[in-house]
Amino acid sequence: MTRRARGGGPGNTGAPPADTGEGTDHHTDEGRRLSRRLARADLAAVREARHDLRRLLRNWGRPGGAETAELLTSELVTNALVHTDDDAVLTAVVSPRGLRVEVRDFMTRRPLLRAADPNDDTHGRGLVLVRSLADAWGVRPHRVGKSVWFELAAEAGR
Questions:
Q1: Is residue 138 within 8 Å of residue 8, measured between CB atoms?
Q2: Reported confidence tier of residue 113, pLDDT bands at 50, 70, 90
Q3: What is the reported pTM?
Q4: Gap between the Cα atoms of 98 and 17, Å rounded
Q5: Is the pLDDT of residue 98 over 90?
């Protein structure tokens, strides 16, 4: 399978919602959706985002897909909170085609895909994991900021 970055997909997520920061999980015509505001530098939000995603994917049928989705979401959320100076927005949509996760931040600087330093156990591996494990991924610019996203097909090997 060829991994490729591609654009498109759902429209812009807009500015962070003015809510309590709690994740929302609701049904839409396109499937089940999670939207969560992530406060700047709030690394506890990484754990909370994984928990919300796990709940969203509770009945998702792809073997190992939920665990892969949690790992990749953790990487994108951590990057947004560590490498930017503003809030971020996590959006995940489960549809019959699969899962799409986007993390939008409000910084124009694009993320760098770099080789991990073998002497550093904690940095430089996030986007490499996303590139390796996602069926598709990419960076979508917005008028203000960008979204880094990945997709996992509903069935392995699609």
A1: no
A2: low
A3: 0.75
A4: 25
A5: yes
What is the DSSP track for 123-152? SS-HHHHHHHH-SEEEEEE-SSSEEEEEEE
Check: CB of residue 57 under 8 Å from CB of residue 66.
yes
What is the rounded average pLDDT for all residues in the chain?
78
Q: Are 156 and 140 in contact (CB under 8 A)?
A: no
In our burial notation (b when 16+ CB lie closer than 10 A, e otherwise), range 99-125 reads bbbbbbbbeeeebeeeeeeeeeeeeeb
pLDDT digits (tens, 9 = 90+) for 54-84: 999 988 877 789 999 999 999 999 999 988 8
d(CA 81, CA 108) in angstroms, rounded, equals 14
Q: Which residues contact 72 (CB under 8 A, 6 or more apart)?
A: 101, 129, 130, 133, 134, 150
Looking at residue 40, its amino acid is: R
Burial of 48 (0-12, 13-18, 19+ CB in 10 A): middle
